[in-house]
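Researcher: Go.
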Amino acid sequence: ETRAEASGRLETNPIMTLGPTSYLTPRGIEQVQRAAKGLELAGVEGGQGCWVYYNKASPSQQSALVLQRELGISNSNMVPDFAWLDPRGVGALEGQGLGVLDELHRVDAVDPLQRPPPGDDGTPSESAGDLLVRTRNIISIVETSYTGTDVVLVSPSSDVLSVLRAAALGEDIREHCRYALGQGEFAELKLKPRPAAVQDTFGDDMAQASAPSLRVVPQ
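Model: Structure:
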């Protein structure tokens, strides 16, 4: 939970997500601490035993630092992301109540290529299909950079991670909300080995941790 999210408003603008309204609340910090314990119980090792790939947005950075401290992850295994794990841009819906996400998800279920109406404040307007393009880049990075290890993805947007999971599991992205993550929740995604002829350096397991979502903005 972020300060902005606690006030019940949606925040996805790239500039706003770096500001103080997106800082974690005390409750948000506790949520990430619980997630760290859950990851440890799931077998995620600290030190150099796993990698944390986290978005530049303030809640993701803070969440990554909490995970690092709780799990004892090496500094060299903390990798910042500057684009692919960004929160889903909601265009003209920016600054509205969190309830508009339900309507956005209903649209996704009908037409994954339909974008929210564009805004005039620089907030991107992204469809579920746009997120699919981004998640392909994330998977490509994991494939080419990590092998046989756990990777924890930390994003301020559940939609980014739910689309990634649906795509990785071969599911219709119109149903990505089935894989939605709440504040501070994580889900383990076990990836099947590829045939030897096409095997690459894709890790055996990839865990996803959703930072408290940046879905709200101050008025």
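Model: The first helix runs from residue 3 to 6.
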